[in-house]
Design goal:
Helix content: 25-40%
Number of domains: 1
Order of helices and strands: HHEEEEHEHEHEEEEH
CATH class: Alpha Beta
Number of helices: 6
CATH architecture: 3-Layer(aba) Sandwich
Largest sheet: 8 strands, mixed
CATH superfamily: Glutaredoxin
CATH topology: Glutaredoxin
């Protein structure tokens, strides 16, 4: 991990906003380059992905640095999510299948925004239902809030009746083998788009 000065915190807190701008600029004024273009909104230059320490659904401490040498898709959601989260995870699973043997070099990390319900066993059942290699992350409310802040993720609990739901950021970070955030994929992209970008990052 990079250990830049205090300005790094301010930069990291603006990750989502700057990536959204880059998505808007993808079609205008792109520099000519021999490198293939990503479908996701690229970070130029790439930025160090903040590390964290959470409880992993595989029974081990979940640290992003565990996956150095692999390409990581990092996303946030919760097991009771009615549509967006299952759709996202199903898209990830399809992308891994389409990658074939190269999928061994890709790790999906899915961090809950709902520590109240998403204990490790419940979260494991949820993410593993899409692909047994997926690793979920949970922790205390304070731990999860700190991770969300470092990645510019919003999450708001909305009570209704005897239960509740969350509204939350639904984009995905693409992190390369060296731990740099290379791009942000907004919700709604196809598995083919993920495969396209993952293949580029795997070749890097």
């Amino acid at each position: 991990m990079s250990t830049d000065g205090p300005s790094r915190r301010q930069v990291l807190q603006g990750l989502a906003a700057s990536a959204a701008v880059s998505v808007g600029l993808l079609g205008c004024g792109r520099k000519q380059s021999d490198a293939p273009a990503l479908k996701a909104g690229a970070f130029d230059p790439p930025r160090g992905a903040p590390d964290f320490s959470l409880q992993g659904t595989d029974g081990d401490e979940l640290k992003l640095s565990r996956y150095r040498g692999k390409v990581v898709l990092l996303a946030f959601g919760y097991s009771s999510c009615p549509s967006i989260c299952p759709t996202t995870l199903a898209t990830f699973a399809r992308a891994r299948r389409e990658l074939g043997a190269a999928a061994q070099e890709v790790q999906i990390v899915y961090i809950t925004v709902d520590p109240e319900q998403d204990v490790p066993e419940r979260l494991k059942s949820f993410v593993a239902g899409f692909d047994p290699t997926f690793v979920g992350g949970t922790g205390t409310p304070a731990q999860l809030a700190a991770v969300r802040e470092s990645y510019g993720i919003s999450a708001r609990k909305i009570p209704f009746g005897n239960t509740y739901a969350y509204t939350h950021s639904s984009f995905t970070y693409l992190i390369d083998r060296t731990g740099l955030i290379r791009a942000m994929m907004t919700y709604g992209h196809s598995a083919d788009d993920y495969v396209h970008d993952l293949r580029i990052l795997l070749q890097g």
